[in-house]
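Handoff note, outgoing to incoming analyst
You'll be picking up this chain. Sequence as last confirmed:
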Amino acid sequence: MTTRFHPASSPDFVPAPQLRELQSQRLRAVVRRVYDQTKLYRNRINEAGLRPESIESIDDIAQLPFTVKSDLRDTYPFGLFASPMDEIVRLHASSGTTGKPIVVAYNRHDVEIWAEVIERALVSFGLHEGDILQNSYGYGLFTGGLGLHYGGERLGATVIPTSGGNTDRQIMIMKDFGVSAICCTPSYFLHILDRAAEIGVDLRSLPLRAGIFGAEPWTDAMRQHIEQAADIKAYDIYGLTEIIGPGVGAECHCQNGIHIFEDHFYPEIIDPNTGQPLPDGETGELVLTTLSKQAMPILRFRTRDVTSLVSEPCPCGRTIRRIHRISHRTDDMIIIRGCNVFPSQIETALLEVEGALPHYQIILTRSRGLDQMEVQIEVNAQILSDRIGAMEELQARFAKQIEHIIGLHVVVTLAEPRTLPRSEGKLRRVMDQRNL
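Most recent structure output, in case you need it:
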């Protein structure tokens, strides 16, 4: 598959020396801005023995202090703003399920940059003017909905702001409006697939050709399942509230990594334990610096996302670097009986066993001081109607495959289709009941 060139993609093909000069220029400006306007950064730059003029080029970025999520909570709500309130035109916030929400600000310049990078993402997926884009990310304080909305309009697509929920209506709109691309979380699209099958709608018969999925980790096995079930191309879009929202990076039609729009967001990979930078190609924690955001610039934000930077040329011709798809987060790690386990490992294991559906849930409990893990997996209805021996055999296969990947024996429970929790937003797959 090839895609036609779109002028919005021009910054993705800038020669490396020209890009580095632009990055250096923007880094100098953003360091000066946060030093002059933000108390937290001024104090930390001083504590590091630096002055704004100490940062001469992008090569000096490792001298700057890190920013972590707790910094945004500690300065709640407006402590990291670098623009006065009369210049701020938009506020977004995280859900705040673990305490104070993360609040982020945008001035008019920032909103324009956001629309620009989303347009570049959509172009990289092969979308163009005239496409009909169903935006099923949540609107409101969550950055997903409005981020994709403005970028889609900038591209010239017809944007349908369905937001999340009311799945039957989503399917009706997809069918009646001739939708060619849909944006949502991968877990919600799985729910759409299930419900469409229940009401007799075959998504493969619709004009839908692309799915734009983000806001939660998902595996290549999940991609293959979605692409086969809906007969679409499933693309990964990357972003996070603290940086700008969706649009920090996106796959191209080659689907071999997420291109970071590094003229606006500079990526580094560090050792998560030592904080030391790692060279391209090595796996570690992704760190991002905003190079052009004005209302709330962020220096060296520790994303907790584990990946690696790829500097080798992409067949699409883009010169901006790309990251491998996020394998997991350092903060979604489950420690059980001394072993480190990530939900994505469970997903990989179950989708390698025939009969599994892409819906599962992990239940953590503690009995007599010993941690226990139960994995509940939806399977095809036919399997549950077979003889008991067949079910036991399938449970054993699941348990063996999971143990092969994570090194632990777990309890496997088979569930009927559409009985495990679904989500219209980000799906919570791990239920930790060990401290109840």
